[in-house]
Design a protein that fits this description.
mainly alpha, 6 helices
Length: about 110
């Protein structure tokens, strides 16, 4: 809900473009871990890959190929514009996951 609220109603220069992109990686990771007992590194890398894939689809303007460029929900979920900075934010989210898991679970990240 927080991520959706940011996407729909926050139009600033930091929260939406940067914090929201870091947060989405953390939220997807937490969602997966809530239901599946998967290895930390495998899950975190999968989420990072998925995030990069979505950004790549934005670069290719994939939403236009789906004929959803006027659909507000589709634009919110899939996004509609590529930004290199988003890739950096996703990587930051990935690093936060690894740091958090290492610090609070005191085990080797596999």
């Amino acid at each position: 809900m927080i991520e959706t609220a940011i996407a729909l109603w926050v139009h600033d220069a930091f929260i939406r473009p940067y914090f929201g992109d870091v947060l989405v990686v953390l939220l997807i990771y937490a969602f997966i871990k809530a239901f599946f007992k998967t290895p930390v590194l495998t899950t975190a890398l999968s989420v990072l890959f998925f995030s990069f894939l979505i950004e790549g689809l934005q670069y290719l303007n994939f939403i236009k190929y789906l004929n959803l460029e006027n659909n507000r929900l589709a634009k919110t979920v899939l996004g509609n514009s590529f930004a290199f900075e988003d890739l950096i934010c996703y990587a930051v989210g990935f690093l936060i996951i690894l740091i958090f898991e290492k610090a609070f679970h005191r085990k080797r990240i596999e």
